[in-house]
Write a structure and sequence with these properties.
This protein is α/β, with parallel strands linked by helices and 240 residues long. The protein contains 8 helices and 11 strands. Helix 1 crosses helix 3.
């Protein structure tokens, strides 16, 4: 496994569900406050941080659309949900005096900047956290894929995927007590074993661009800062 290093620029992937309680919907203020405090702790170390946030706490296109709403429309609704979460994160971060910008792949000029790669990089260079909303702006693509894409575009050094478990296992640790945790995996192993770390499109994009991914438990205080510092947390996924 590669030696620990402090990253200069990272892409943090947050699920929408991290902003609410288990089995509930919406945004829970306590969860939001906890997450932005963790982000501030990491940003205060000097790292440049982009964030992609999901929208599953508000709308899950595939699960919530039923038989009435088509897949494309449902996916666009999900993109709007990510923008709602991004605005909440932005406001909460700025209350902690962390300068933040929201850029969206779905243009809504009154609420956020349109995504422009060069402008995003300029914000990062000026020490601003940039939250990328709207996924890729296209239906049929997940926010995992958006994370991989934005990480490559802004020339991040790593994707930090915050989850509800402390890494990647060979089985669901909540259902199988014998599940084994991996400290290190290759992208190809993740794909072949169908470990559901990220969707295959996202994993392939990271693999082809040699973009490492760290999967870790968001609930452990200080884990974002530890991951940014290159300390051993969760599971590291690399090309080799």
């Amino acid at each position: 496994m590669p030696a620990a290093k402090k990253y200069k620029r990272v892409l943090l992937k947050l699920s929408g569900e991290s902003l609410c309680s288990e089995g509930s919907h919406g945004i829970r203020p306590e969860a939001l406050s906890s997450i932005v405090s963790e982000i501030k702790l990491a940003v205060d170390s000097g790292v440049q941080m982009g964030i992609v946030v999901g929208g599953g706490n508000i709308w899950r296109g595939m699960q919530d659309r039923g038989e009435v709403i088509g897949r494309v429309t449902a996916d666009y609704m999900g993109m709007l949900a990510t923008l709602m979460n991004a605005l909440a994160l932005q406001d909460a971060l700025e209350q902690l005096e962390v300068p933040t910008r929201v850029q969206t792949a779905v243009e809504i000029a009154k609420l956020a900047e349109s995504y422009i790669r060069r402008r995003a990089i300029r914000h990062l260079e000026k020490g601003r956290v940039v939250i990328f909303a709207g996924g890729t702006g296209n239906p049929y693509f997940t926010t995992d894929t958006a994370s991989a894409l934005r990480a490559v575009e802004i020339e991040a050094e790593v994707v930090l995927k915050a989850t509800k478990v402390d890494g990647v296992y060979n089985a669901d640790p909540k259902k199988d007590k014998k599940a084994v945790k991996y400290d290190h995996l290759t992208f190809m192993d993740s794909i072949k074993q169908r470990l559901k770390v990220m969707d295959t499109t996202a994993l392939t994009l990271c693999m082809e661009n040699r973009m490492p991914v760290v999967v870790f438990d968001l609930a452990v205080k200080g884990n974002i800062a530890r991951a940014v510092a290159g300390q051993k947390v969760g599971t590291l996924i690399t090309t080799e």
